[in-house]
Design goal:
This protein is an alpha/beta fold and 285 residues long. It has nine helices and 15 strands.
Length: 285
């Protein structure tokens, strides 16, 4: 159980793995996530959205970016290795129906949790438009998978190395100005990106759903670390979400809280880098 069946690198520090987990594969729905732990005694709990599932194989697909100590340790695992602890599916599933015209906007690693939602929206009969954003061409992920769902895929890069040299909000605004305008926008990515996507759609009255999974820690609602203000009320992302009305989320408060432990996170990551370098040095010698 929880054995890694497949591993590949999609971009710099971005990995896709398939993990044997038949019960989760059978039960998962778009928008839901798992919590994994590499060390059950001292290990950090990592929330990852289920990017895909294969019921026949009994596996789930996870896509993650190695940015901190725990995700870098996860990136060091290989096919045949086992993840010590994996729990799910957790969170409220995405509300899927035939809305009409749906625009799915993904920024960076946010394209991964967006993919199963785009799949489900297409299966429900929606006209689907996908916008993918990344800093540079090398960081664009799942483009071909999205193109298999719809011909209407717009890629934006900050440096113009691929697709349009634009932020994702530029084509989103253009779509909102069209007639008919989108019936629903689903935006997943960095908090600042989701904030400005919501601000882009607000004047046009286009319903906008965002996923706040980046702030989750425990995944059970017990630690309180993922509390956010939505419509002036306190919500816990892991049990009340992870998806919310983007026009109601207090992104400024969320972004401020995300930076609370930046120093500790940086020190942990630096320690992981030193350990990895020591291991590589030992192997060379």
């Amino acid at each position: 159980m929880n054995q890694i069946l497949f591993k590949e690198q999609l971009a710099k520090d971005v990995y896709r793995i398939r993990v044997a987990s038949p019960l989760i594969a059978e039960e998962r729905q778009p928008g839901q996530f798992i919590i994994l732990q590499l060390d059950t005694e001292y290990g950090e709990r990592i929330p990852l959205t289920i990017a895909d599932a294969d019921v026949k194989e009994g596996s789930i697909t996870l896509i993650f970016q190695a940015v901190g100590r725990s995700t870098r340790m996860l990136a060091e695992l290989n096919v045949g290795d086992k993840i010590e602890n994996l729990v799910g599916p957790l969170g409220r599933p995405t509300h899927i129906q035939n809305f009409g015209r749906v625009v799915c906007v993904g920024g960076g690693i946010g394209v991964a949790p967006l993919y199963p939602i785009a799949q489900a929206m297409k299966r429900a009969g929606n006209e689907l438009v996908v916008i993918i954003g990344a800093r540079t061409k090398e960081l664009v992920i799942l483009e071909q998978e999205m193109r298999a769902l719809t011909d209407d895929v717009i890629v934006c890069t900050d440096d113009g190395s691929y697709g349009r040299k634009d932020l994702v909000t530029a084509p989103l605004k253009e779509l909102c100005e069209q007639s008919p305008k989108p019936d629903l926008v689903v935006a997943i990515g960095p908090p600042l990106m989701m904030k400005f996507c919501a601000e882009t759609t607000r004047p046009y009255g286009v319903s906008t759903v965002v996923s706040l999974n980046t702030i989750m820690i425990d995944g059970t609602g017990m630690c309180g670390g993922c509390r956010v203000l939505v419509g002036g009320q306190t919500k816990f992302v892991c049990v009340d979400g992870p998806e919310f009305d983007g026009h109601q989320v207090d992104f400024d408060q969320m972004i401020q809280r995300l930076g609370s432990y930046r120093k500790q996170e940086r020190l942990a990551a630096e320690g992981c880098n030193l350990h990895a370098e020591a291991v590589r040095k030992g192997m060379r010698e």
